[in-house]
């Protein structure tokens, strides 16, 4: 899958950790595959508390470029109580600031709480992953210094408002992702997503922003390297 992506022109990928075990797997993959870097994280839907000591040690690995996925999920059924999620997010944000790593933030139904948590951590930088909100929220996260990352969702014709956000987002704050195996582009609904399909989103975004795919690719690489500094 990584080879297919590299052949398609997707030459750098970050694989996310959702708990300690899968963060370890992400780091292992990043050591085996030149095109892959790792993020170490604790998904908000996880029930067991994060092992902060072990995650902190793992996050110091040279192939780790971010703390993620972390965030708040107030919509998914059966997630831990809000205050528990909030306390864990605070711990993960503290770790990111301590290690000077960016965070990749998952948000479902918790934009206000996440914005306050970001504002409460001086020096925190990062990206709102799978951004799907309206311009008012985009503006708020941009003001907090965050990047916005767009996925296959923007290729769904019904997503007019989101397409507007893609057009308005400052060029130096825009990132693209697949969120694979989830979040497929409209034309591939029902098929598991994979990194190579980033091109579906990139093609539409370049059209929306009135630039060539090559220009967008150059901008995206520069943005990714500016945020994920260890991804050299
Ligand atoms: Zn997510």
List the helices and strands and how they pair.
Layout: H1 2-7, E1 13-15, H2 20-32, E2 36-40, H3 52-58, E3 64-73, H4 82-99, E4 103-108, H5 111-119, E5 126-128, H6 135-143, E6 147-150, H7 160-168, E7 174-176, H8 198-208, H9 213-227
Parallel strand pairs: 1-2, 2-3, 3-4, 4-5, 5-6, 6-7
Helix pairs in contact: 8-9
Description:
- The chain has 232 residues and is α/β, with parallel strands linked by helices.
- The chain has one domain: TIM Barrel (Alpha-Beta Barrel), CATH 3.20.20.140.
- It contains nine helices and seven strands; from the N terminus they run αβαβαβαβαβαβαβαα.
- Helix 5 (111-119) links the parallel strand 4 (103-108) and strand 5.
- Helix 8 packs across helix 9.
- The structure holds zinc ion.
- Zinc ion binds next to loops.
Short description:
It is built from nine helices and seven strands; from the N terminus they run αβαβαβαβαβαβαβαα.
| Helix content percent band | 40-55%
The number of helical segments is 9
Q: What is the assembly state of the chains in this entry?
A: single chain
CATH architectural category? Alpha-Beta Barrel
Structural class determined from secondary elements: alpha/beta
- Low-confidence runs: none
Distance between the termini: 21 Å
